[in-house]
Structure formats: structure tokens, C-alpha cells
From TrEMBL:
Residues 347-482 form the Polycystin cation channel PKD1/PKD2 domain. The keyword Membrane applies. Pfam families: MCLN_ECD, PKD_channel. This is Mucolipin-2 isoform X3. It catalyses: Ca(2+)(in) = Ca(2+)(out). GO terms for cellular component: endosome membrane; plasma membrane. GO terms for molecular function: NAADP-sensitive calcium-release channel activity. CDD domains: ELD_TRPML2 (cd21071).
Length: 535
């Protein structure tokens, strides 16, 4: 009787394992189990993508409104602005007269803003809760300089003086102020800051409630280099605030309610998917424990790590992460829609990443077909080797990045900072912009010019002809290995051999299997029903 009970236990475990590794269609044919998770994933793909598209269109209007206002501010407050930034700064001046004219031009434009601006703008309060301009200048504490005699006497301590200009005074009063008598030989920078408020009305055309903005604008005259060229920077930081009093007639409010209901339905769908996937992982871990205990008891040895990892379904983990991000992103979107929150960037990152994971998860269902499964198996087989290879190649890449930055930085726009160097080298690896990178090097130093040629030729030759070819060879080798396995059979593990015994015993145990299956079903209906994983 003990031997029969052991056989029953083994047969039940084998059937549960076989059922666990079935695809949804096979599970439905075997036990008529409806693939709820598959249906939920298909529904979720449609709903999450629709939600993302709607939010993306709304976010585009927000970004466009900010960018267009920044361009408008530059034309309004920067004298002689051409419409295109010169470099990382907006424009530059070269004489003292131009500096004074640029400063007072910005002050005068601010004072008559309501008469000249085309936008829905008004004056806002600054950090001191005052309406007006705040002008600050930084300069060395004291000093004298005589370039003709090559003499310099300067105190490197920096002083900062600020003045608040309100709208009650005329521009002429500002010009007569002693604050604006600048000593350029010790001047470091002049900073003009002011706040403006605006309302984005274009959202009304999309049947959405309008947003209220606060623009924190700063105009900086940078003279830190003392090179005879003062760079003028314009920075505008837009913050969305809740409008205090909105009274809009029409169907906008009803449309907002429909969108909120749709977002709530997305949350419910993702919550159901999250619960089902979490349940499947828990049941799979319980089945794994049953198999490990049985294998240790019968064969007196542990199951290999590869077989243990077979019970951890990475696709479910991906779906859980996607569901969590979608739920959080949808809650943020609902708060943004109701104008209680204004964090568009965080919401777009959450919704965008979750949609990416949802679509990547579709590959799991394509993997049930052998023709599509090659991609997944190749990625799994090549990933460890590719990561080790990238770690080694990354050391060489970092070496070239630091070398290019320190040597070519002063002579080439694409090597000015480490981030730009890394992007430039990555584009060279992909064969982009090669001639421009060679041609833009300044020939002010023959030694640096020769070094740049050696640097670029060696990098391109090493990475394109050697490292990139080896990278592709690693993936190709894994692909060939998987193709051979599909033709000749995969190496059998302990788990696969255990499941194989099930099919080999089917013909031999025709009479006894009916009795065993009956016992298994009776036992499964009882205490072990919760151990059957549903994947």
C-alpha cells in the first residue's frame, strides 16, 4: 500500500508538472481551463496602448506650449535675437554699449509686456512675493588691472549685489541708478530674473481643461571668461499650477469624466492581471518545492540550478512590473486630468515603459510556435556571453572616451564633454557621421590634428572590424546552436527526463493508469488543489 501511495504521489506530481509546462491552448484542451491571463493580456494591450496615445497627444501640447513660449520670450527680451541660438547660449555682445542696451531693452520690454505680447501672459510674483524684476550682478571684490604693463591686483572673493525693480519706476529712473554702472574688468555676470504667468488655451480644442503656468525666466550675461565676448543665456523653467477659478461652459467636463472612467477601468484590468500573475508565481514555487522534495527523497540528490529556474517564469515578473507601473501611471494621469497634479514627465515615463513591457510580453505567446521561438531561445543562450563581452569592450570604450575628451575637447565640438564624446563614439561605431567628425577638427595644432587621425582611425578599425564582428559572431554562434538543438533535440535535464517517463509509461500502464488518475483526481480535489499552477 505504501508503494502504491508513492506511485500515486509520483504520478500526480508528474501530471501537475506536465500541465504546468503546457501553453494556454493545450491547457484548455487538457482540462477545459479558460486562459484568463491570455485574454486579459490581449485586452490590456489594447487599453494601455489607447491610454498611452491619448496621454501622448496631451503631453505633446504641453511640451509644445512650453517650447513656443520660450522662443517667444527670447524674441521679446533679447535685443537682436536672430531666432537661432548661437551655441549653448542664445546670443552674444562685444561692446559695453551693447551690454547696456541689451540690459535696458529687457527691462523696458518687461514693463510694457501687456502691450506688446501676443500670448496670454501676466506678471507673476517672484520668490520674494513681489511683482517685478530682480537684477543681480557678481563681481570680484576689488582690484586694478593694467594689461599694457602686465600688472594685475585683484581680490578673488566674489561679491553679489541685487536690486528689485518694480513697475512704478520708469526705465529712465533705472538707467540713472548707480547699480548699473558696471566695471567690466571685474564683472563676472549680470542676472535678470522675473516670473510670468500664462494659461494654455489650446487644450480646450481637445476638450480638456486648460493648464495654468508659471514661467521662471532668467537672462544671464556671462563675462566669466573676460575674453571680450559676453554670452547671453536665456533660461525659462515652466511649472504647471492648478488654476484657481475655472468656469468653462460646454462638454469639456463630461469628456473629462469619460476619460477618468476609462483610466479607472485600465487600473482594474491591470490589477486583475497583477493578481493572476502573482498567484501563478506562488503556485509555481509551491510546485517547485514539491518537485525538489520528491527528487531528493527518491534519487538522494539535488536538482540542478537550471531545472530550478525553469519554475521561475520571467514573463510573469515582467507583466507584474508592467502592471504596477501602469497602475501608478494611471493614478497620476487621473490626478493630472483632474488638475490636482502636474507631473507630466514622471507619468509619461511610467506609462511609456509599461506599454513597452506589455508589447514585449507578446513575444511569450509567439514563443509557443517553433518558428518564432528561435528568437527567444537565441537571446536566452547568448545573453550571458554578450554581457561578459560588453563588460570587456566597455573598458576599451571608456578609455577612448576619456582620451578623446581630454585631448580633442578644446578643438572639436563633439568632444567638449564626456556625454557628448560617448554619443559621438557610439555613432561612429554604427557608421554615422564619420566624415563630419573627421572634417570638423580644428587645425590649430598640427600635433593634435595628427593625434586625432590616429585616434579616430584606430577606434573605428578596432570597434567596427573587430569588436562589432565578434559581437555578431557570439549571437550567430548561439543561433546555430539553437538550430542544431531544434533538429537533433535539446540536452535532457533531470526535469525533462522525469517528464519523459510519463509518456514512456502510458502504453505500459493502460490498466493501472485509470486507477491512478482517479486517485490523483480525488486527491487533487482535496488538499492539493491549491498546488496546481495556472500559467
Amino acid at each position: 500500500m505504501a508503494h502504491l501511495d508513492s506511485e500515486v504521489k509520483e504520478e500526480c506530481l508528474r501530471e501537475d508538472l506536465k500541465f504546468y509546462f503546457m501553453n494556454p491552448c493545450e491547457k484548455y484542451r487538457a482540462r477545459h481551463q479558460i486562459p484568463w491571463k491570455l485574454g486579459l493580456q490581449i485586452l490590456k494591450i489594447v487599453m494601455v496602448t489607447t491610454q498611452l496615445v491619448r496621454f501622448g497627444l496631451s503631453n505633446q501640447m504641453v511640451v509644445a506650449f512650453k517650447e513656443e513660449n520660450t522662443v517667444a520670450f527670447k524674441h521679446l527680451f533679447l535685443k537682436g535675437y536672430s531666432g537661432t541660438d548661437e551655441d549653448d547660449y542664445s546670443c552674444s555682445v562685444y561692446t559695453q554699449e551693447d551690454v547696456y542696451e541689451s540690459i535696458f531693452f529687457a527691462l523696458s520690454q518687461y514693463r510694457q509686456l501687456k502691450n506688446i505680447s501676443l500670448g496670454t501672459l501676466g506678471y507673476g510674483e517672484n520668490e520674494d512675493n513681489r511683482i517685478g524684476l530682480k537684477v543681480c550682478k557678481q563681481h570680484y571684490k576689488k582690484g586694478t588691472m593694467f594689461p599694457s604693463n602686465e600688472t594685475l591686483n585683484i581680490d578673488s572673493d566674489i561679491e553679489k549685489d541685487c536690486v528689485h525693480l518694480d513697475l512704478s519706476k520708469s526705465p529712465q529712473d533705472w538707467k540713472n541708478s548707480s547699480f548699473f554702472r558696471l566695471e567690466f574688468y571685474r564683472l563676472l555676470q549680470v542676472e535678470i530674473s522675473f516670473h510670468l504667468k500664462g494659461i494654455d488655451l489650446q487644450t480646450i480644442h481637445s476638450r480638456e481643461l486648460p493648464d495654468c503656468y508659471v514661467f521662471q525666466n532668467t537672462i544671464t550675461f556671462d563675462n566669466k571668461a573676460h575674453s571680450g565676448k559676453i554670452k547671453i543665456y536665456f533660461d525659462s523653467e515652466a511649472k504647471i499650477e492648478e488654476c484657481k477659478d475655472l468656469n468653462i461652459s460646454g462638454s469639456i467636463q463630461k469628456n473629462t469624466q469619460y476619460v477618468l472612467v476609462f483610466d479607472a477601468f485600465v487600473i482594474v484590468i491591470c490589477l486583475a492581471s497583477l493578481i493572476l500573475c502573482t498567484r501563478s508565481i506562488v503556485l509555481a514555487l509551491r510546485l517547485r518545492k514539491r518537485f525538489l522534495d520528491f527528487f531528493l527523497e527518491k534519487y538522494k540528490r539535488r536538482v540542478c540550478d537550471a531545472d530550478q529556474w525553469e519554475f521561475i517564469n520571467g514573463w510573469y515578473i515582467l507583466v507584474i512590473i508592467s502592471d504596477l507601473m501602469t497602475i501608478i501611471g494611471s493614478i497620476l494621469k487621473m490626478e493630472i486630468k483632474a488638475k490636482n497634479l502636474t507631473n507630466y514627465d514622471l507619468c509619461s515615463i511610467l506609462l511609456g515603459t509599461s506599454t513597452l513591457f506589455v508589447w514585449v510580453g507578446v513575444i511569450r505567446y509567439l514563443g509557443y510556435f517553433q518558428a518564432y521561438n528561435v528568437l527567444i531561445l537565441t537571446m536566452q543562450a547568448s545573453l550571458p556571453k554578450v554581457l561578459r563581452f560588453c563588460a570587456c569592450a566597455g573598458m576599451i570604450y571608456l578609455g577612448y572616451t576619456f582620451c578623446g575628451w581630454i585631448v580633442l575637447g578644446p578643438y572639436h565640438d563633439k568632444f567638449e564633454d564626456l556625454n557628448t564624446v560617448a554619443e559621438c563614439l557610439f555613432s561612429l561605431v554604427n557608421g554615422d557621421d564619420m566624415f563630419a567628425t573627421f572634417a570638423q577638427i580644428q587645425q590649430k595644432s598640427i600635433l593634435v590634428w595628427l593625434f586625432s587621425r590616429l585616434y579616430l582611425y584606430s577606434f573605428i578599425s578596432l570597434f567596427i572590424y573587430m569588436i562589432l564582428s565578434l559581437f555578431i559572431a557570439l549571437i550567430t554562434d548561439s543561433y546555430d546552436t539553437i538550430k542544431k538543438y531544434q533538429q537533433n533535440g535539446f540536452p535532457e535535464t533531470d526535469l525533462q527526463e522525469f517528464l519523459k517517463e510519463c509518456s514512456s509509461k502510458e502504453k505500459y500502464q493502460k490498466g493501472s493508469s485509470a486507477f491512478l488518475s482517479c486517485v490523483c483526481c480525488l486527491r487533487r480535489k482535496g488538499s492539493e488543489d491549491h498546488l496546481i499552477p495556472v500559467t
